[in-house]
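Bit of a strange request maybe. I'm writing a small parser for structure token strings and I need a real example to test against, not something I typed by hand. Could someone generate the tokens for this chain?
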Amino acid sequence: MDVIKNGTITDVKGFKAAGITAGLKKSGKKDLALIYSEYKAVSAAVFTKNMVKAAPILVDMENIKSENTQAIVVNSGNANACTGESGYINAKKMTEVIAEKLNLLPAEVLVESTGIIGVQMDMEKVTKGLESVVAELSEDGGHNAGEAIMTTDTFPKNTAVKMNIDGKEVTIAGIAKGSGMIHPNMATMLAFLVTDVSIDKKLLQKAFSESTDDSYNMVSVDGDTSTNDMAGILANGAAENTKITDENSEGYKTFKEALNFVNKELAKSIAKDGEGATKLIEVTAKNARTMEDAKKVSKSVVTSSLFKAAVFGSDANWGRILCAVGYSGAELIVDKIEIFIKGENQMIQVAKNGMGIEFSEEEVEKILKEEKVGVIVNLNDGNHDATAWGCDLTYDYVKINADYRT
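Reply from user aminoacidic:
Good idea to test on real output. This should exercise your parser:
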């Protein structure tokens, strides 16, 4: 597997994309993206488990059943959430306009929105924008599409890799957005992946669902699960590999490894770009009794507001880590727990047998001042490991969200 430097979705054979300004954002920045496959494609997706689902999510939960999905249209600046029947009609309208322009059926188009909740879409601006964005589709439009889906993000999130399956070069690429309201519970972050692999639709869904459990569902910025969370993938078969129909095949294993890499890279980018964040936090729970326990522990620590605040202040308050482990809901033996703080060049143990030990506060503080802070929680109670990603909790997070609507 090879990472494509500065790669994005239009590095994948048969895909075009565009990102334009439709006037949906007050800032005047790009706010409408379109991804299009020139070939018929199968799709898979996971959606928020928040009971309050945005109108586009409801539309996509129907459209994802289609045997062919060739386009994804995404707007930023307005979430089209909590907008009732009118919002649903508007989301459907977006698929209809794109379908007409691209000679597709509305069910062959996915739609997503992100931005302010509870405001109706300005469909006059949206419709004009949809007409314009189709005309802008190009094989170089991936980066523009990545910019157009951003809200409070400070940088676009793009990843692309190549691999070999059955002697054919296969590519997977993705774009994502997410900075605040990030605590995915899927099975406002968005991720859209494309690939030219030939694969069975049901097997694609299986691979994608499993991959999101170990990537996006292991990210937390602020503990809020959005009304609009979604991750989806299109596979158009343009690589012409032997169609993957067996999960035990080498082709499936190679594809799944690359898929996991792309999803995890995008997930880490989301965590790194948390609203107001200055540091990426990576928490690994090791030697848990079960995988479920490992995930509970790692995500509990990375979600702890008290621990996140301590990382912002470079305070070696390991007690907050142990506290978060204790309320994670995982089965564990407290007297066996060890805690380590890990930097780029060193790792320092701060707790053993569920108790604090002597360590250099100055050395740990140096680690906590780095851009990436690692935490290892060794439960010493099994052989299952899991990693979660998050960010520090800063003054700026409160400032950003205190006046988000204004």
